[in-house]
Amino acid sequence: ASFCLSKHDPVLDLLKHIPRIRCEKEDDRNLRQVYEGATTVGFTGELCLNLLGKSADESIFASGGNTGNHTSACFVDGRHPSGKEVFRHNPGIINHETGQKPDSDTLYCIASLLKAFVSAAIDILVQRQELSWDTTVAQVLPGYGRYDQDAMLNGMTLRDICSHRTGLYGLDEVIQGMDGRVLLPKSEVVNVVNALPKKFGFRTDFHYNNALFELAGAIIERISGFQTWGHFLKKELFDPLEMKRTTAFRSVHKTDDNIATPYTCLTDGSLCKIAPTELSADAMNACSHQFLGTNSESLLVSGHQGDVPGYTCSLYLIPKTQSAIVVLSNGTGLSDATDWIAQDILQAMYSLKPTVDFVFTAHQASILYKTTFKRLFQLPLEEHRKMGTPTPPLDDFTGEYVMENLDIATLNIKAGPETSSTGLRMRVNGLADQEYYLWHYHADVWCYLPESADQCLRRGLDRSDWTSYLISFQRDAEGQVEKLGWDMCGVSVVFYKRK
Asked: Pfam families under this entry (predicted)?
């Protein structure tokens, strides 16, 4: 989920409410043990930055959101742990039609960095002893109960949710659609979580899950009595900290004239304006270095990135010095410039060695990123395609398909005047603007990969694996199509054809 954060918000006091995973040994950490033994969980939102008198590469700020001959807006803010601001930088443009520049009151969507505030909200309730991190979902939301009656998952706790250790797959393909759309109503969150398929065993692996944080929001609402978790955040966090412009409601896009317009960068470097995300309370760096400062003293850093179509942001928290780096942007670029900037500042703050040239690295990443569409999707699909299989009659596949254990998730397959003579259309959850064109791959398998990377970028269509673009129909003993399988990040999700 996402909300808008003003750059001028004083949030140093948020540190007292921000839980994080703690481990005893910084240099010998087993991730599984860390998450299973976590005492508190989550990441933080916008905090404070202590530059320690160092200077990062100024040229990377100039190219902070650089996309060809255009620059999206970017924000970097720094404060001493005492609360004194020591650095602020507002390059770029928030609206290319008007030329409006960002200032200290400009709003940005912070995408997944919101999870920190959800965790902080839960921690407030924990401190008030209204619940605990080991409170189970079922204790708060009586409607929760797994379709498979898995006893361990039925005992899922807030600690499990916020540390992403449930092993459940989040079904982003049918929940978060193209153009930043939310495809299922908020009121169905419990039913959705009841039906989430398993990717890993419970408490055996870390697996990021957006849907479960919506469930955490529902728990906040139930315990606090507030209409939405957004209202709770305003009353209990934003107002006390005088974060007057920060909001968890999408309506701000219609009422505020100082909000960063979302853009995405196409492969030729041009900018494409896109619709603001619907993620709210009411409703990628391939060349990234695995390590910074390999020749420097070990330093524990907690980091997180936020990414929705049209917005990217990065956060690095350094507990040892009570410092943090936060970078916000209104552009989805050919690499994540906010992360490069954050890493460059981190490198300067602690004199990390050897020195990484992040401007060069960012350019190299953008070159590699332009090959992603062909390298990771087109070529593997071509390699695994069985050529020469005839296209079956289109009418064999048309109809409505309902997801197993979640009948509000549907796929409508149709042929007709809007499609070519050899293609199909797949509409997700009955939404007219969420249609994919299916072209015949082989046998009873169809593919919805668009013809170009730019088509994906314009609609915010992002998949992690080439198999996720395949829709495999299956027939019964009489040869009639009875169901389809959609591979979602290695999890086969079944939809049955409605009779």
From this structure: Beta-lactamase, DUF3471
Residues with Cβ < 8 Å from 33, sequence gap 6 or more? 23
CATH of the domain spanning 383-497, picked from 2.60.300.12, 3.30.413.10, 3.20.20.70, 2.40.128.50: 2.40.128.50
Residue 24 burial (CB count, 10 A)? 8
What are 410's two structure tokens?
Answer: 């549907």
Residue 165: strand pairing partners: none
Query: CA separation (Å) from 154 to 36, 151, 195, 405?
Result: 17, 5, 12, 16
Number of H helices, E strands in the chain: 16, 20
d(CA 429, CA 427): 7
CATH number, domain 4-167+202-369, options 3.30.420.40, 3.30.565.10, 3.40.710.10, 3.40.1280.10:
3.40.710.10
Model pTM score: 0.80
Q: Which string of DSSP letters, residue by residue, matches 267-284?
A: TTS-EEE-PPP--STT--
What residue spans of 37-164 are helical by DSSP H? 58-62, 114-127, 137-140, 151-154, 158-162
What does the alpha-carbon distance between residue 195 and residue 168 come to, in Å, rounded to a whole number? 9
The residues pairing with 157 across neighbouring beta strands, listed in sequence order, are 136
From 272, 249, 309, select the one nearest 111 (Cα to Cα).
Answer: 309
The Cα 19–Cα 41 span in angstroms is: 5
- Residue spans of the domains in the chain: they are 4-167+202-369, 383-497
Rounded to 5°, the CA angle 241-244-248 comes to 95
Give ∠ CA 71-72-73 in degrees, rounded to 5. 120
pLDDT (tens, 9 = 90+) of the chain, 499 residues, equals: 334 444 444 333 443 443 333 333 333 333 333 333 333 222 222 222 222 233 344 444 444 443 344 456 666 655 555 555 556 778 888 998 999 998 888 888 888 888 988 999 999 999 999 999 999 999 999 899 999 989 999 999 999 999 999 999 999 999 988 988 889 998 999 999 999 999 999 999 999 999 999 999 999 999 999 999 999 999 999 999 888 888 888 788 888 899 989 999 899 989 898 877 655 455 433 444 445 666 667 778 888 888 888 888 888 888 888 888 888 888 888 888 888 888 888 888 888 889 999 889 888 988 998 999 999 999 999 999 999 999 999 999 999 999 999 999 999 999 966 656 679 999 999 999 999 999 999 999 999 999 999 999 999 898 889 999 999 999 999 999 999 999 998 899 999 999 8
Q: How many CB atoms sit inside 10 A of residue 192's CB?
A: 22
